[in-house]
Amino acid sequence: MAQQEILRTFEQICLEKLKELGISTSAEWSAAMGYKHANGLAKVIKRINIKMPSKLRVYYNKRPRRYEAL
Fold first, then answer.
1. Which of 69, 70, 64, 59 is nearest to 25 (CA)?
2. Which of 3, 5, 6, 54 lies 20 to 30 Å from 63, alpha-carbon distance?
3. Which residues, at least 6 apart from 34, have a Cβ–Cβ distance to it below 8 Å?
């Protein structure tokens, strides 16, 4: 029997990593994804907020914002 591939978008991969980390800042999340700079996931976070707002909880309106995957 052939295994069926599970296709995931980069946003889904990032959310899975955030779920492993727990509540964290974008700098911590970016470092866990392998980026050197704190704003490495800035565009990805914006896309997640637009496309899948129910899967990401944002704490605080001021910096440093903290994110949690739901």
1. 64
2. 54
3. none
- pTM for the whole structure: 0.83
From the CB of residue 28, how many other CB atoms can be counted at a distance below 10 Å? 17
Domain 10-69: give its CATH architecture: Orthogonal Bundle (1.10)
C-alpha span between 38 and 54 (Å, rounded): 24
pLDDT of residue 57: 93
Q: Going edge to edge, which strands form the sheet with 66-69?
A: 24-25, 66-69, 56-59
Q: What is the mean pLDDT of each run of 10 residues along the chain (70 residues)?
A: 74 93 93 92 92 91 88
Q: What is the pLDDT of residue 7?
A: 75
